[in-house]
Design brief:
333 residues; alpha/beta; Rossmann fold; N-(1-d-carboxylethyl)-l-norvaline Dehydrogenase, domain 2; 8-stranded mixed beta sheet; two-stranded antiparallel ribbon; 14 helices
Length: 333
């Protein structure tokens, strides 16, 4: 197929490399002209995915409209806060193009409206079907060709979705389909929050018991919030929920887990450093948007709310742990 990937961060670049390895025609479209020229010249994304060669046959796009002209599959890979800007750049070209499916690689909610990425993408692409590809997916491992399993979710598990499933799957990446688009997008967003909590456990030296307990109770919160907005409980026990959470909470590459460790060491310094980071730490923004969403629905989410107080309310991390441990006793179920 003719594939276009908008966004040349680590994940967008890795997906482009994977799709080219699958034999597809691929165009990678960076956000900035200077980045596009640098990647085209070096055949490597030295800013976000150093050491992973970009095949000479992969096109590096400079403008959205020409890239979309013959596109069959469009992948959108940018930080969640950058999606509105990306969609405005694509503009009318998206609706007039004969794209078969637009696929989100984005994990996060819109900060203004709390809408999911696929809701925004569907509006921009008109009648084009939309999907999300999510799950435990470290970009460098995908680019290397290490084994990866993901979930491809759309509102309908139909022939088109299965055709796209076959297109993205291969010897190194296996995609499962799902018709729970809401659940997969919420799972991909909230797991980043709890990965920050896992990093706090590591940074505070709380031990394996505490980290296991936090992640187990976090899964309950994930299911509770996800079901309240229309997701299915079983989705959060799959690749788009538990699978993604385990990778992000334990992976040494995880920026969200690293933020938790930094908060444990020096919270004010860690928060001040966020502004200068090259790549997004989605768990920071997701904590704020999901807290607003949960409170607007009257959902009980003590771990989420505690992390929000640490990130936005100045709560000392150790005091937050104490607050969670001294809540009223209750039945597990």
């Amino acid at each position: 197929m003719n594939c276009v990937v908008f966004g040349a961060g680590a994940w967008g670049t890795a997906m482009a490399i994977h799709l080219r390895r699958q034999g597809h025609t691929v165009t990678l479209v960076p956000r900035r002209l200077e980045q596009a020229l640098a990647i085209s010249d070096a055949r490597e994304n030295r800013d976000y995915l150093p050491g992973r060669r970009i095949d000479d046959s992969m096109q590096i796009g400079l403008e959205p409209a020409p890239a979309l002209m013959d596109a069959e599959l469009v992948f959108l890979a940018c930080p969640s806060k950058g999606l509105p800007e990306l969609l405005s750049r694509i503009g009318p070209a998206a609706k007039s193009a004969k794209v078969r499916m637009a696929i989100s690689l984005i994990k996060g909610l819109d900060q203004s409206t709390l809408r999911r990425p696929c809701e925004l993408i569907a509006e921009a692409f008109g009648s084009t079907p939309v999907a999300t590809l999510s799950g435990p997916s470290n970009a460098d491992e995908v680019a290397q060709g290490l084994p990866t399993a993901l979930v491809l979710a759309a509102e309908r598990d139909d022939d088109l979705l299965r055709e796209v499933q076959a297109a993205v799957s291969g010897p190194t990446l296996r995609a499962y389909t799902s018709s729970d688009l809401i659940g997969v997008e919420i799972g991909g967003t909230i797991k980043n929050v709890y990965a920050v909590g896992a990093g706090l456990c590591d940074g505070l030296g709380l031990g394996s018991n505490a980290k296991a307990a936090l992640l187990t109770r976090a899964i309950q919160e994930m299911m509770r919030l996800g079901q309240a907005v229309g997701g299915k409980a079983e989705t959060f026990l799959g690749l788009g929920g538990v699978g993604d959470l385990m990778a992000t909470a334990h992976g040494p590459w995880s920026r969200n887990r690293a933020l938790g460790e930094a908060l444990a060491a020096d919270a004010p310094k860690a928060l001040a450093a966020l502004a200068g980071k090259k790549e997004a730490v989605e768990g920071h923004r997701a904590t704020e948007t999901l807290t607003r969403l949960a409170k607007s629905r009257g959902i009980d989410a003590p771990i989420l709310f505690c992390l929000h107080e640490i990130l936005y309310g100045g709560l000392d991390p150790r005091a937050g742990v104490t607050a969670l441990m001294t809540r009223d006793l209750r039945s597990e179920s």
